Amino acid sequence: MTALTWGDLPAYPCYLGRGDQGHFTTIDQAQVSVMDRGFIFGDGVYEVCAVYDGKPFQFAQHMARLNRSLSELRMPNPYSSDQWQVLIEQLIATDSIAIDAYSIKANDRKGLKNALIYLQITRGVALRDHAMPKAIVPTVFMMRSPLPMPTSQARAQGVACITADDFRWQKAHIKSTSLLGAVLSRQLSVDEGAAETVMFRDGFLSEASSSNVWVVKNRTVIGVPKDHLVLEGIRYGLIEEMCKGCGIAFELRRISRDEVFAADELLLSSATKEVLAIAQLDGKPVGSGTPGEIYKKLYAAYQAAKIAA
Ligand code: PDD
Q1: Per residue in 236-252, pLDDT tens?
Q2: Of the candidates 93, 123, 145, which is a domain's last residue?
Q3: Is this structure's pTM higher than 0.70?
Q4: From the CB of 270, is ligand 1 less than 6 Å away?
């Protein structure tokens, strides 16, 4: 991935709100209370949405998942989807704040039409008490930064991943800001110089630390069921649609560790990876050891979907 440096970050625009009241500012100016339950408990939810050519990709699907996560945490959504859309459009349009005030490098300006939107809603500010306070105003934070893309080498050669036990909690379907399980999991692959950690629960595939995992066998794309043990990535629906469009069989079912290691191809998917081929797992080649035919078809279909959106 192309790295965003901390040096650039303060200049990027963000939105900070309490309930339905908020304002646009820059990351270095935004402040929240240390008593925010997001800070104290990780009590919040988030979304990460790619923006292509100025438009949030799969926006309706992100909003639907945000509402599902919020309802699991018994939190209200301070905005309707239409209000979110307006706020996100404004955030995308606030180039002048970032460029004029801090003179962002010229090559970042070109990238402004492609961007990454991160948004989170925490339960709000309260005295520290595990119980959910009754009258509390949610804190909203949203930022826009450059879109990190897999390198051309990762696209051409695929990436190496490692495996680990899935030691996270049993509510992985909630896109919660409590991400310590994901942080610990991801660090295992960082330690090995690998791109992701592919996790197994009781010998069955779940997902990677911040991506979904897809097995390709005999020209069928197989994913794990959308249950509480994995996050339903926005690409679940998209990959199913793209498979349909490309005449590739698609199914969701439990997948054993042996099946993962016997795959013809393995793919990762996420907002930033789009679809990405895994070339090696625990040091062993996946299939031919290079990105396969199904990956190439899905990657091409993905690029077409971005243009058509
Ligand atoms: N991560 N599974 C997990 C645990 C994730 O954190 C993510 C996304 C995905 C893929 O979801 P989607 O297709 O909606 O991006 C699957 C984001 C990108 C993140 O936390 O930065």
Answers
A1: 999 999 999 999 999 99
A2: 145
A3: yes
A4: yes
